């Protein structure tokens, strides 16, 4: 820390290259401009705000692709990392947010939550996620996490008049705050022991020194906070209630992009910072993974509410996803990235189809509401069942390859074969409730005979996710290579 | 024992007593006032560490603004404290057990040998003319400008979220969805009833 610099020197020292930060800078300024446009817009349908939000996402995505890094750089006093991993995660989050907005638009149009801010909060949340995945100090990681979560709390609470939604918002907020508190508490210990907040410095400290008990204790707090954010058992209590209570359009978003961002957070902290104590966090994650797969799959069997079923399935998927991290090598991390990306796409479609089927202001809540979808609209029935079959992990859908990759990653590690067996066994149990949904779609008689009249953007969103699931399932190598390339600098 | 140590123990004792007061007094307004006292004595401790600017900010921002707001909220909300305290004695043993367990665990990992004054020495005193504000500014706008700006964005989002959640203007729109109207089927709007055709009676058509 140079305390002897004069003010003039400080000013001349500001010669940062802001090109790597350009996607975030553009997103922030464009969202702020959109905020002003939205205030003065007289468009009651908020069509302008929606179109502009999609346009901003498109441009942000193009910028990220355009400046895709070929090296690993630490910038802005090493608080920001610019590497292929961050760019990969950013691109996928932009795409996921864009599809989530497609699903959200018709949903909020028909309800009382049509506000320009609804789109804006998505954009700011995305900004938080982008900052999060390229944070390279504990401080910038934490701030990115808070920016993302703050927007999500507001999005869950958007439907103020709905009691369930308010309850979900309070639960999510309190749980999120506790998780943040845990992470911060852990960070304070880490700082106390190492005197560093930069991940690279912490890694260097762990290289030179034996990890003390205090540091391991700090790691427990940080992993606990991460597990809260992921919704891994035993910190999963909020997931079903929040997914169920939040407006479906928010659930769509909640189940997709933030999970990818949480993956980024986990990789940055565990791999970039705490690779030196790999064995310690490996054991913690094994407990989380096994209990998540167990509880998620078994409790999902008993659900009659489709949103809660998907929430428990999300918990189970987090369990599988953690397997890749547990493997503790580049191949495993790439498998985890592959898993979380494909799961995010599937979850988008899975929750999105509930919006697709909703008629007017009615919600699709029960599994029985999906009865006879195959007769009412064979195409939609087919697309939705693709999504559920992919979640179940059946070939030729992408969910199969994702599960295969994480299980393969664990099999390559000595002494963890039992974990792979547990995962395989649990996915057989999981098969049951996914197939039950498919059975309801095709073989049960419809309760209502009305045609489904979904908006164009809904059909588009469902089409994109569902076709992505089958296309990636047929050609998984491209995405897998893309994921592996992201980890070339570890 | 010099005067500095005496001052430290004095304010440290007040901080702890006031903090215990926050969670133990019956009246919630008094609890908030206890919290004010905690912050105040913590600020005094910061002064001992030569962090004058932070100490003053703590008093101005926390005591002056945040805690006053807190006081308003506590006075305005009608909290049923009797209901909150129900089951207090019943759950006390479990609470105490967990509390002491956690305290013991945390104490074990941050005990004196690890974070004692030998391991973490007292910060060096600065010479005269040292400016706290200048150093803070240098750090915030120099080395930490990036996290500092993110914190600014978080505040902006907090404003947006708070306004959009509490806004009580007209939200109920009575709009019509043209697309939906176009896609209506005949069967949904038109009911065709089959009737027996009858000849018109003479004289009725007038």
In total, how many domains does the architecture of chain A comprise? 1
The tally of helices of chain B reads 10
Gap between N and C termini of chain A: 27 Å
Q: Which ranges of chain A are low-confidence, i.e. pLDDT below 50, for 5 or more consecutive residues?
A: none
How much helicity do the residues of chain A have? Answer: over 70%
CATH architectural category of the largest domain in chain B: Up-down Bundle
Order of helices and strands of chain A: HHHEEHHHHHHHHHHHHHHHHHH
Task: Count interface residues per chain for the largest interface.
Answer: A-B, 55 and 42 residues
Instruction: Count the E strands of chain B.
Output: 0
What is the overall pLDDT average of chain B?
84
SS strand fraction of chain A: under 5%
Instruction: Output the structural class of chain A.
Output: mainly alpha
- What structural category characterises the helix and strand content of chain B? mainly alpha
CATH H-tier superfamily of the largest domain in chain B: NADH-ubiquinone/plastoquinone oxidoreductase chain 6, subunit NuoJ
Name the average pLDDT of chain A.
89
Written account of the structure:
The complex is a heterodimer of chains A (490) and B (206). By secondary structure, chain A is mostly helical. Chain A is globular, with a radius of gyration of 22 Å. Chain B contains ten helices and no strands. In chain B, helix 1 runs antiparallel to helix 2 and helix 2 packs antiparallel against helix 3. Chains A and B meet through helix 1, helix 2, helix 5, helix 6 and helix 7 of A and helix 5, helix 7 and helix 8 of B.
Please sum up the structure shown.
The complex is a heterodimer of chains A (490) and B (206). Chain A has 490 residues and is an all-alpha fold.
């Amino acid at each position: 820390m140079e305390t002897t610099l004069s003010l003039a020197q400080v000013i001349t020292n500001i010669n940062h290259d802001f090109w790597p930060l350009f996607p975030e800078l553009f997103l922030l300024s464009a969202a702020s401009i959109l905020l002003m446009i939205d205030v003065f817009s007289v468009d009651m349908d908020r069509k302008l705000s929606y179109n502009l939000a999609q346009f901003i996402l498109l441009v942000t995505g193009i910028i990220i692709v355009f400046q895709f890094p070929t090296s690993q750089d630490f910038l802005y006093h090493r608080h920001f990392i610019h590497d292929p991993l961050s760019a990969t995660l950013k691109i996928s989050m932009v795409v996921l947010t864009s599809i989530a907005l497609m699903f959200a638009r018709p949903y909020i149009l028909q309800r009382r939550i049509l506000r320009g801010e609804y789109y804006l909060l998505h954009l700011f949340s995305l900004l938080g996620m982008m900052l999060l995945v390229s944070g390279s100090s504990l401080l910038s990681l934490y701030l990115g996490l808070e920016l993302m979560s703050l927007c999500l709390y507001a999005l869950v609470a958007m439907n103020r008049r709905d009691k369930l939604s308010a309850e979900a918002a309070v639960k999510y907020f309190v749980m999120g705050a506790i998780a943040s508190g845990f992470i911060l508490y852990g960070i304070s210990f880490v700082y106390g022991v190492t005197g560093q907040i930069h991940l690279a410095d912490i890694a260097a400290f762990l290289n030179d020194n034996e990890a003390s008990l205090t540091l391991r204790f700090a790691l427990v707090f940080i992993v606990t906070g991460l597990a809260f954010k992921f919704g891994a058992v035993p910190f999963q209590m909020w997931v079903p209630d929040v997914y169920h209570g939040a407006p479906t359009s928010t659930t769509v978003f909640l189940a997709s992009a933030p999970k990818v961002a949480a993956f980024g957070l986990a990789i940055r902290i565990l791999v970039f910072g705490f690779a030196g104590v790999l064995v310690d966090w490996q054991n913690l994650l094994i407990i989380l993974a096994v209990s998540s797969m167990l509880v998620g799959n078994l409790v999902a069997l008993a659900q009659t509410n489709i949103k809660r079923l998907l929430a428990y399935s999300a918990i189970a998927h987090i369990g599988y996803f953690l397997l890749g991290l547990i493997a503790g090598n580049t191949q495993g991390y790439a498998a985890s990235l592959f898993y979380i990306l494909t799961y995010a796409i599937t979850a988008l479609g899975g929750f999105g189809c509930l919006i697709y089927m909703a008629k007017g202001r009615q919600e699709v809540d029960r599994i029985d509401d999906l009865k006879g979808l195959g007769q009412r609209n064979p195409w939609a029935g087919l697309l939705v069942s693709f999504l559920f079959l992919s979640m179940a992990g059946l070939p030729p859908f992408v969910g199969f390859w994702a599960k295969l990759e994480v299980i393969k990653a664990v099999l390559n590690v000595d002494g963890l074969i039992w974990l792979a067996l547990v995962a395989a066994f649990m996915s057989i149990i999981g098969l049951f409730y996914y197939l039950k949904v498919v059975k309801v779609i095709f073989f049960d008689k419809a309760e209502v005979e009305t045609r489904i009249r979904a908006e164009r953007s809904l059909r588009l969103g469902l089409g994109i996710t569902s076709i992505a699931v089958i296309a990636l399932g047929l050609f998984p190598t491209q995405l897998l290579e893309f994921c592996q390339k992201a980890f070339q600098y570890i | 024992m010099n005067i500095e140590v005496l001052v430290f123990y004095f304010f440290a004792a007040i901080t702890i007593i006031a903090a215990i007061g926050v969670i133990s007094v019956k009246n919630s307004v008094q609890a908030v006032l206890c919290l004010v006292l905690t912050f105040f004595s913590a600020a005094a401790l910061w002064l001992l560490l030569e962090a004058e600017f932070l100490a003053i900010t703590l008093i101005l921002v926390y005591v002056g603004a945040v805690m006053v707001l807190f006081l308003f909220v506590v006075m305005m909300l009608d909290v049923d404290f009797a209901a909150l305290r129900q089951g207090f004695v019943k759950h006390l043993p479990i609470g105490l057990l967990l509390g002491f367990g956690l305290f013991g665990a945390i104490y074990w990992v941050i005990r004196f040998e690890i974070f004692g004054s030998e391991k973490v020495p007292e910060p060096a005193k600065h010479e005269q003319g040292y400016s706290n504000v200048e150093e803070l500014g240098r750090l915030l706008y120099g080395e930490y400008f990036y996290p500092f700006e993110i914190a600014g964005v978080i505040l902006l989002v907090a404003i947006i979220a708070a306004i959009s959640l509490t806004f009580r203007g007209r939200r109920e729109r009575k709009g019509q969805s043209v697309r939906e109207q176009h896609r209506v089927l005949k069967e949904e709007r038109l009911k065709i009833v089959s009737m027996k055709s009858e000849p018109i009676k003479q004289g009725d058509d007038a």
